[in-house]
Amino acid sequence: MPTGFGRLWTAQTISSLGDGVSHAALPLLALALTRDPMALALVTAAGTLPWLLFGILGGALVDRWDRRRTMWVADAARAVLLAIPALAAVFGVLSIPLLAAVAFLLGLGGLFFDTAATAYLPDLLGRDPMLLERANSRLRGAQTAASGFAGPPAGSALLAAGRSVPLVADAVSFAVSAVLVRSLPPVPRPVPEARESLLRQARAGASYVFRNRLLLGLALRPAVGNVAFLAVETVLALFAHERLGIGAFGFGLLLTAEAAGGLLGAGVASFLGRRLGTGTALTCTAAVEGLAILGLAAAPNAYAAGLALAVCGAGMGATMVLGPSLRQAIVPAHLMGRVASTSRMLGMCAAPFGAFLGGWLATAYDVRTPLYVAAGLLLAMTAVTATMTSNRRVEAALRAATPAAAAPADKAATAHAPGTATDLEPGTPALQGAAYATAPSTGEH
Q1: How many structural domains comprise the chain?
Q2: What is the pTM of this model?
Q3: For 92, left (φ over 0), alpha (ψ -120 to 50), or beta?
Q4: What share of residues in the chain are helix, strand, coil (percent, to 5)?
Q5: pLDDT at residue 276, as a whole number
Q6: Residue 177 is part of which domain span?
């Protein structure tokens, strides 16, 4: 792995630890201010709104900006931002509107950082598919360990020391991450496109995803998956209490089992890709997720439920390594930000629908019903996307993307050359305009 990857890995791990701290602390801070469920939901929802409102436009901006600079500026800005609620907590003027505004701005910073990091990584690794899988496996594993295991308990413990303490800790994590990212090696910037409006460029990036069957298949997995998983998450605590007869501590162990499975899945993702082929591995992990949720719905006791959640987490962990790695290997550098943000936005838009679906099904029928419906959605999605992300299609896309790494600097000479990294199906009309030209690259989500 290139030397710079170690610094990027360390920066994202530290930042994920801070995220875990704030994810536990912000809801608890809100709970200390009010018991109104709608007010608490406002703070939670505010963090997802930037992806819904600015996801595609944010990707277009990242494709215009220097990605390394975008990352460290976003982290530095979030470090400064967290000083505001920390001071408000010290002076006793913390409020729900302030927490909601901070959550929104943190989410906006996360949009720019995550999109830029996704676009920067393939340039750092020379777009090598094997290196990308290895890198994403390490990044995903570290993120799960830091934000899923270490961060939330640390956030709760720090909150006991004072309302401002977890916010300061998160600010420090962002500051350290910004310093590390600032020291990363520069990578060549994509060749500038013909001057177009930001909206037109954003639309071109979204169109690139929807007109490419492989990329659309990769985007549909998290979108449908989020509907299913949020339907499950909405009723999981109630299901655990009513059907499995476990309390708060047991419920925490269930979530820990899922996170442990996620670590295992991230660790074996590259092995599965090599043995089965990336396309087949993605189909298998999607099927495993659906069958695991079906097993959870039918679980007779807490032990079986924990095993089902661990298996589901393993499938999710592997999918979240293989899918982004493949996308990073085949998407042209000058479109990476827009493709990544479009895919992420589809998933974020689907999540609220899943939460509503789970609540409605549990109210209208039974607490197990959302789990059965979620399993059906995941298995149906597996069948629909199996041909879209097949080994044959993946291999063709990787072969088509290979010349992009050695493309000449003259963009005009390569704008519509055969074998560009668009991975269009045979017979699909060529995409028109400078937005789809293949840019040279030395080397995403």
Answers
A1: 2
A2: 0.72
A3: left
A4: 80, 0, 20
A5: 93
A6: 3-185
Spatial CA neighbour of 208 closest among 1, 438, 422, 351: 422
CATH code of the domain covering residue 364: 1.20.1250.20
Closest CA to 154 of 145, 396, 397: 145
* Angle, alpha carbons 185-187-191 (nearest 5°): 165
Alpha helix ranges (H) inside 91-150: 96-124, 129-143
Q: Are residues 50 and 145 in the same domain?
A: yes
Residues 6+ apart with CB under 8 A from 102: 26, 81, 82, 84, 85
Give the integer Cα–Cα distance in Å for 381 and 358.
18
What pLDDT score does 145 carry? 78
The pLDDT, as a whole number, for residue 414 is 36
Q: Are 192 and 114 in contact (CB under 8 A)?
A: no
CA–CA distance, 346 with 365 (Å, rounded to integer)? 28
CA-to-CA distance for 78 and 181, rounded, in angstroms? 14
Task: Identify whether residues 136 and 240 lie together within a single domain.
Answer: no
In a domain? residue 299:
yes
Identify the domain boundary among 351, 366, 393. 393
Tokens (6 digits) for 425:
């199906």
Query: Helices 213-242 and 336-364: crossing angle, nearest 10°?
Result: 30
Spans of the chain below 50 pLDDT = 404-445
- Do residues 131 and 23 share a domain? yes
Instruction: Please report, for residues 79, 409, 437, the alpha-carbon distance to residue 96 in angstroms, rounded to integers and kept in the order given.
Output: 20, 52, 47
Same structural domain, 178 and 239: no
Residues 273 and 385 in one domain: yes
Instruction: Outline where DSSP puts E strands in 252-356.
Output: none
Q: Which residues contact 365 (CB under 8 A, 6 or more apart)?
A: none
Residue at 427 is within a domain:
no
pLDDT value of position 238:
83
Amino acid at 103: A
Sequence length of the chain is 445
Same domain, 372 and 303: yes
The tens digit of pLDDT for each residue in 229-246 reads 888 887 887 888 888 888
Tokens of 445: 């989500």
Pick from 89, 254, 77: nearest CA to 165: 89
Same domain, 87 and 223: no
Per cent of the chain over pLDDT 70 is 86
Clarify whether residues 147 and 216 are in a common domain.
Answer: no
The pLDDT score that the predictor gives to residue 191 is 59
pLDDT value, residue 201: 85
pLDDT for the residue numbered 409: 35
pLDDT at 423: 36
Cβ pair 293, 312 in contact under 8 A: yes
Q: Which amino acid is at 309?
A: L
